[in-house]
Amino acid sequence: MSGDDSGRLARVFLTRVIEPGDETAGRWVRELGVVEVARRLKGAGGPLPGVSGRRWEGLRARARGADPERDLGTARAAGVRFLAPGDGEWPRQLDDLGDARPLGLWVRGQASLRMWALRSVAVVGARACTEYGAHMAAVLAAGLAERGWVVVSGGAYGIDGAAHRGVLGAGGATVAVLACGVDRPYPPGHAGLIGRIAEQGLVVGELPPGDHPTPSRFVQRNRVIAALTRGTVVVEAAHRSGSLVTARAAQRLGRHTMGVPGPATSARSAGVHELLRGDAVLVTDAAEVVELVGDMGELAPERRGPVLPADLLAPGARRVLAALPGRGTAGPALIARDAQTTQDDAVARLYELRALGYVERHGDGWKLTRQAMISVRRARGPS
User: Fold this and answer.
1) Are residues 121 and 181 in the same domain?
2) Is residue 140 located within the same domain as residue 108?
3) What is the mean pLDDT of residues 190-213?
4) Do 321 and 311 touch, CB atoms closer than 8 A?
5) What are the distances in angstroms from CA 152 to CA 59, 92, 374?
């Protein structure tokens, strides 16, 4: 067996023995090498540095039940491949996790994870979301897909599922990062959705085939979502939502963190609003997300209301038009004063406005036409 093969088998072995995100184990791998760590766990040599007797026994018990050749065979039968750091398809941004970097990744789907991750955004949020949250997640994700971005989420109920469906509906690319074996979709109610993602996108996880999720594995899964992407958008999250873990991991890693605001009275958006009071950026659509995470020049369009006919007037004419009263007439002197111009200039502008149908002359005074009154009210907005 070559050194590369032994190292790969050792990593497959360790995914069965070591929990995701274990920084102590990551330090062992960094300092001793993956083959030596696996050798000691199999009983050849003494305990690893700094491990307690109880923990060592637990790790050794897991090691006795691990069979990397069997796991690789099960994976191949399910159309799953194993990626290790240093592989051509390995997303190098995961190395930013340091000793918490995954030992390896199990992947379903045909696309290159490394290439897709280069232009990806995470969209995460509450499982128990509102209709508003689901709508915003789907529309946001579809908009990102239409702009050529890959959307990464966790495959869960609620916001995650809405984001994935939004991308699939737009014919885009999406990645589901699971907290279990990628051959055993969780939650079970999303088996069909995760199957579609595997066909049209990618399903990724740190755990070997058949392994089940636990609360701690969900938490650790979130660091992978944060590290894999250029930024994380949170759509609805209560104060203790797991999606806030993803956002805070993104902040620690120097990634962009964004939030979609909800009603101020909604407990399901309280966590998002807390993020927005800190370093997170408020976003409302895909264009605003891309402006933040994209390349130079990918700017969101300028936001403004509809262009009204009065907006097309020269500035001096707009000031004179605005100086006319909403009802009744006014003389040139009063109009000039309110428009902050001379009386001669005001008279000249009034005749321009008369030619355009905005004002009428009544004796020595001037008044707005009905058309102009509507235009001016719209321009001024509600009182």
Assistant:
1) yes
2) yes
3) 95
4) no
5) 32, 16, 48
CB 184 within 8 A of CB 209: yes
Q: Is residue 175 domain-shared with residue 99, that is, in the same domain?
A: yes
Q: What distances in angstroms separate CA 262 from CA 96, 162, 238, 277, one per listed residue? A: 32, 16, 11, 13
Sheet of strand 150-153: strand arrangement: 80-83, 105-108, 202-205, 174-178, 150-153, 120-125, 231-235, 256-260, 281-282
In a domain, residue 71? The reply is no
Tokens 């203790």 locate to: 240
The answer on 188 and 152 residing in a single domain is yes
User: What range does the domain containing 331 cover?
Assistant: 309-380
Q: Where among 247, 264, 293 does a domain terminate? A: 293
For residue 282, the domain's CATH number is 3.40.50.450
Question: Residue 343 is encoded by which pair of tokens?
Answer: 């009386």
- Residue 119 domain flag: yes
- The number of folded domains in the chain is 3
Pairing relationship of beta strands 202-205 and 281-282 according to DSSP bridges = unpaired
β-strand partners of 368: 359
Q: Are residues 165 and 278 in the same domain?
A: yes
Q: Do the domain assignments include residue 35?
A: yes
Claim to verify: residue 225 and residue 355 sit in the same structural domain: no
Residue 106 lies in a domain: yes
User: How crowded is residue 39: how many other Cβ atoms within 10 Å of its Cβ?
Assistant: 16
**How far is it, in rounded angstroms, from Cα 53 to Cα 56?**
5
pLDDT tens digits for range 28-42: 999 999 999 999 999
53-99: pLDDT as tens digits: 899 999 999 999 999 999 999 999 999 999 999 999 999 999 999 99
pTM, whole model, 2 decimals?
Answer: 0.79
Amino acid (one-letter) located at 209 = P
Q: Between vectors from CA 306 to CA 300 and to CA 309, what angle results, nearest 5°?
A: 135
The one-letter code for the residue type at 85 is P
Structure tokens at 261: 């605001």
